[in-house]
């Protein structure tokens, strides 16, 4: 997974998903944490000198989670660039000085729409998206809407995860990945449910318990886990369920 | 012996990477402003310096329509990719573009246009500047037509 992209409403579970389902698989992690929701070794608005000492301190460590957080007054784009530079330096060090077969560095950029726009990205951001994998850096971008991040992130993403979005069916990028019917379902996703797309073209839907279902657009509405969840919820007067249909086969 | 040489090599590599990392941090420019909400790159770099809002609209309007559709069609490049490429300019190129637009706005664009375009070592940007001139001219003509229409007397149709 060289580039992964996560989107969804506020509090839909995207940062929680990255923190609890993605990052535990990895050893060396650098997080640009704007929303202040990632635990680890936290550095608040580090200066250049602090970043240099962070590199020196962590370069030979086998397991770390460096959290870089901007302050209210810091220029977020600049600090994010510094975090990218740090991740690339650590990745190059891993590749050249430690062991090229080691697992890649994982760079997480939370609230990515604060550090780029659909038309603008910094040179560091462009570099890590396009060339990061050669320096052993995988990147994960978290944003509320795919419309608000740079096209390079969306175009290079080999793994896309989306939680509920209000306008998914109007986003051409999502239609090409998830199909029109699935996009309409993204708009109806219950809380903490998610769609996942990977570079092989496989689309899956997961419920809040992380149970995987096959592609909803291949089944009728009666068999569709999301529609079934809605019906179940309505008939029970708002109670929550796992969303499993009797007809629907869990994978 | 081999182990020792390996360690030396590793230290050298570490030193090199550390040196590059330090240099990249030191070279990071601090003069750029943060990205305003929903901004486009042109407005970010040029708007507050010397370009009025209305001119900015022309530039942005031009950017969306002319560069993407006309040039992309001519060059056979996918529109979005080209638009992205055009934005990926180095700080040095950015300064050149800034001066170009400044010249274009302050001086007589008709006289300077060819000269400006020839100064740019980038076919896309040169074509963009020329196209900008054409758009500016077209808008001036439209404005002149509108002014003319405003001043004209409207004769009621004969009964």
Describe, in plain words, how this protein is organized in 3D.
The complex is a heterodimer of chains A (251) and B (159). Chain A contains 8 helices and 10 strands. Chain A has 251 residues and is an alpha/beta fold. A 10-stranded mixed β-sheet of chain A has the order 3-4-2-5-6-1-7-8-9-10, sandwiched between helices. In chain A, strand 9 and strand 10 form a beta hairpin. In chain A, helix 2 packs parallel to helix 3 and helix 3 runs parallel beside helix 4. The radius of gyration of chain A is 19 Å and the shape is globular. Chain A starts with a strand and ends in a 16-residue tail after the last helix. The C terminus of chain A is likely disordered. With 159 residues, chain B is mostly helical. Chain B contains 7 helices and no strands. Classes of the chains: A alpha/beta (251), B mainly alpha (159). Chains A and B meet through helix 2, helix 3 and helix 5 of A and helix 1 and helix 4 of B.
